[in-house]
């Protein structure tokens, strides 16, 4: 695989680029509506340290929900198994911002990747870390090797001004007893966490610990245990794409995570990570062309875990 992955990516990129994009920009966060909808880039990082990208793969974009994997990783690293009493590990079968199942399950979100689950993870981090906002940023700086990474105030403020559904989610969970801090503090942290920006190369580099038994690829530094990495990958496979998680496993066959900024990162343990960015989203809030590109890559290669 190693020798020809560049050709496979290049071919898939060239095939996908001219497709009629049936997706739409995420306009509910006003700042995301200002992005050029035709951007399209992809970057793969191989376990042997080589990497390859094409298209707009060096341009930063808002990673949004992809950051939920990183906040979960920090929670798993510092707080361990007890987080699973506060959030479950089941696919939700609902939209990413749904309130629907919270009442049924007493305020326990179905998984850490729907908004409700990521909000509870932010609450857990706020309780257990002295300076959660700063410590999370430091953690991602180290993982990504981007020492000057910062939260994007433009994006966070834009979402704070319009994120009424997340406000509702956080207050609803609080009323059910599963938010311990002030909802305003939890939401501020959540919006900051979602505001991080990276390019495809940086994103594929950042996620490389998940293909390398929980250790960074470039220096071997242990981030989480092998077993914890396995569990996060399992959650990405079953819950990474909300009510389209089954479809992504079916068509692409890799654990992955999407964000409403149009990014997707997918991982093949012991092989590679791949990050793709195309801002127009399908009705489930996942990048339309990003899904197509990854489907093409794994269909025309042996690059799926199945
Ligand atoms: N910040 C976004 C929200 O809470 C993240 C959603 C996403 O990327 N799916 O709505």
UniProtKB/TrEMBL annotation:
Report the top EC class in one word: hydrolase
Record-linked SUPFAM superfamilies? beta-lactamase/transpeptidase-like
UniProt keyword terms in alphabetical order: Acetylation, Hydrolase
Question: Would I find Disulfide bond among this entry's keywords?
Answer: no
Q: What reaction is this protein's catalytic activity?
A: L-glutamine + H2O = L-glutamate + NH4(+)
Q: What is its EC number?
A: 3.5.1.2
Q: Which is one GO molecular function term here?
A: glutaminase activity
Under the heading InterPro entries, the entry gives: Beta-lactam/transpept-like (IPR012338), Glutaminase (IPR015868)
Does the keyword Protease feature in the UniProt annotation?
Answer: no
Name the domain of life: Bacteria
Q: Which residues are substrate-binding? A: 65, 115, 159, 166, 190, 242, 260
**Family of the protein in this entry:** Belongs to the glutaminase family.
Q: Which PANTHER family match?
A: GLUTAMINASE (PTHR12544:SF29)
Complex formation: Homotetramer.
Designated name of the protein: Glutaminase
């Amino acid at each position: 695989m190693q020798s020809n992955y560049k050709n496979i990516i290049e071919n898939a990129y060239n095939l996908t680029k001219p497709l009629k994009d049936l997706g739409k920009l995420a306009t509910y966060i006003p700042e995301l509506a200002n992005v050029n909808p035709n951007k399209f880039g992809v970057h793969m990082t191989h376990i042997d340290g080589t990497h390859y990208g094409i298209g707009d793969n060096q341009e930063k974009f808002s990673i949004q929900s992809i950051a939920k994997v990183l906040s979960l990783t920090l929670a798993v690293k510092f707080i361990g198994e007890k987080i699973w009493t506060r959030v479950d590990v089941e696919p939700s079968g609902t939209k990413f911002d749904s309130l629907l199942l919270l009442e049924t399950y007493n305020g326990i979100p179905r998984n850490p990747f729907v908004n409700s689950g990521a909000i509870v993870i932010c609450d857990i981090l706020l309780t257990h870390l002295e300076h959660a906002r700063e410590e999370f940023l430091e953690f991602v700086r180290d993982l990504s090797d981007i020492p000057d990474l910062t939260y994007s105030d433009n994006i966070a403020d834009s979402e704070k001004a319009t994120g009424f559904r997340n406000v509702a989610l956080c207050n609803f969970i609080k009323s059910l007893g599963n938010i311990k801090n002030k909802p305003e503090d939890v939401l501020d942290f959540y919006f900051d966490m979602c505001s991080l920006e990276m390019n495809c190369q940086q994103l594929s580099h950042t996620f490389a610990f998940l293909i390398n038994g929980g250790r960074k690829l470039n220096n071997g530094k242990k981030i989480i245990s092998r077993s914890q990495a396995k569990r996060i990958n399992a959650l990405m496979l079953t819950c990474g794409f909300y009510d389209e998680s089954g479809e992504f496993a079916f068509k692409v066959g890799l654990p992955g995570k999407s964000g409403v900024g149009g990014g997707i990162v997918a991982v093949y343990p012991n092989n590679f990570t791949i990050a793709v960015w195309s801002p127009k989203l399908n009705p489930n809030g996942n990048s339309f062309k990003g899904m197509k590109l990854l489907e093409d890559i794994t269909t025309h290669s042996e690059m799926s875990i199945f």
